[in-house]
Automatic annotation (TrEMBL):
Region listing for Disordered, in residue ranges: 96-127
Cross-referenced Gene3D superfamilies: 2.60.40.790
Alphabetized InterPro entries for the sequence: A-crystallin/Hsp20_dom (IPR002068), HSP20-like_chaperone (IPR008978)
Highest taxon of the lineage: Archaea
Name assigned to this protein: Hsp20-type molecular chaperone
Family (UniProt): Belongs to the small heat shock protein (HSP20) family.
Length: 127
């Protein structure tokens, strides 16, 4: 989980993102002003979430740039926590705000390892 949180913190300064966690899911909210569903690609690749977002800027007639700091694109890979079920993830884009819900796997992959005692190979009883 901290790898995802750290990766969100490493996004470019103009990108604002929040990360939430419940017992059943993670929720990522990213501000992407000017991005539409046609210029947004969100997918999982193995243990990473890939987000590519593009937008257009229109330079008003009779004006020129003195300063241009608003990026036109975001292209990032975020590490997914091992408990995420990527195939059940969903998202929405509303007025430039991308919301991704990443469900967690139910239960744990915890397995109890049986420990035996006795006269097995390598035991002190063989010597």
């Amino acid at each position: 989980m901290s790898a995802l949180s750290n990766a969100l913190g490493d996004l470019p300064d103009p990108v604002f993102a929040d990360l939430y966690e419940s017992e059943t899911a993670y929720l990522i909210v990213i501000d992407l002003p000017g991005v539409s569903s046609e210029t947004l690609d969100v997918r999982t690749e193995g243990t990473h979430l890939h987000i590519e977002a593009r937008r257009e800027k229109n330079l008003p007639m009779a004006f020129r740039y003195l300063r241009e700091d608003r990026p036109l694109f975001l292209d990032t890979d975020l590490p997914l926590p091992p408990t995420v079920v990527a195939s059940e993830a969903d998202g929405s884009l509303d007025r430039g705000t991308l919301t991704l819900r990443l469900p967690k796997r139910e239960g744990t992959d915890e397995t109890t390892i049986p420990i035996t005692t006795g006269e097995g190979p390598g035991s002190a009883a063989e010597t």
